[in-house]
Amino acid sequence: MGVCVIIPTLNEEENIGKLIDSIHENAFGEIEIVVVDDGSSDKTVEIAKQKNATVLVNNPGRCGPAFGWNRVGRTTKQEILCILGADFLIDDKNFFKKSIEAFAQDKTVAAIKTSYTTKQETLIEKIVTKKIGEGFEPRFIRKDVFIEINGFPEIGFGEDVVFVQKLEEYCKEKNMKFLFLKDVYFSGHGVQTLKALYKQGFWYGKTSLLFLSKVRESGLQKLKRAIFVYMRSIYLLSFVLLLLALLNMLFLIAGVPFLVIFLS
Fold first, then answer.
1. Long-range contacts of 25-29 (CB under 8 A, 24+ apart)
2. Can you tell me the distance from the alpha carbon of 137 to that of 87, in angstroms, rounded to the nearest whole number?
3. Where is pLDDT greater, at 254 or 68?
4. Phi then psi for 184, rounded to 5 degrees?
5. What's the pLDDT at 41?
6. If 13 and its partner were Cys, which of 42, 105, 111, 162 is the partner (CB 3.0–4.6 Å)?
7. What does the alpha-carbon distance between residue 202 and residue 244 come to, in Å, rounded to a whole number?
């Protein structure tokens, strides 16, 4: 069974070469590596090409990771999609082997999630991430299932939550399996600096309302979800700052005509 590894990137020159090398070192069977670049200004694209990955460049950029996964997931000819982040590492030699074999041995397997380990090299990373855990979203999914559930919602924050909800509903309806392979893992980094944490928080805060409108839950469950989201103060702070910026912009737009009249 062929696998298409999809890697969205944006200024990942420090990570992309290491990730592609780790894929090559632990590949099993037919592996296609596709990097979807979102407008990098560094050497990400150059390095990915040097490592023999297929590179697609979004034009315009800044479309988000979900756009990259969807763009390739809907067009590749491979049967299985492997959904990765650019800051991951595949240092488990069985990552591909055991996952592909699980699909081959049981035709009712729709998707597979794995364990993860976090590098935790900085204090911030140690505070906000777990060292070892169970991955939430699938790392592998059949292409036909991916298309059936219409891929990822392109909403920024919470796209993995909505994606998994759609996948679980599909598996229940079609009597298929969403497996967890506990002994298979990938490695990666969490947020490593306060600056990166705020940038992440601003993005999440900015897109949180869109996420809450898309999440597949009842009114009470959605309220609980909103409380859970905004309990992370950095998301709430970033959302409030965004609203203040928008209000200030509206004030300026509305005030310009009056200012012109006054000056004239």
1. 25/90, 25/93, 26/90, 26/91, 26/92, 26/93, 26/94, 26/95, 26/96, 27/96, 28/96, 28/97, 28/100, 29/1, 29/2, 29/3, 29/96, 29/100
2. 16
3. 68
4. -115, 135
5. 96
6. 42
7. 13
Alpha carbon 95 to chain centroid, angstroms:
19
Report DSSP state, residue 81: E
Cα–Cα dist 177/195, whole Å: 40
Query: Is 67 in contact with 39 (CB distance < 8 Å)?
Result: no
pTM of the prediction?
A: 0.86
Strand 80-83 relative to strand 88-89, pairing: unpaired
Judge whether residue 176 has pLDDT over 70. Answer: yes
Residue 146 structure tokens: 């991916």
Tokens of 109: 């397997």
Distance CA 254, CA 242 (A): 18
What are the tokens at 7?
């890697």
Contact 18, 42 (CB under 8 A): no
At residue 96 the predicted structure's pLDDT band, cuts being 50, 70 and 90, is very high
CA 181, 183, 189: angle at the middle one, nearest 5?
95
Q: How far apart are CA 115 and CA 185, in angstroms?
A: 4
Measured distance CA(159)–CA(212) in Å, rounded: 10
Give 115's strand partners.
134, 185
Q: Are 95 and 19 in contact (CB under 8 A)?
A: no
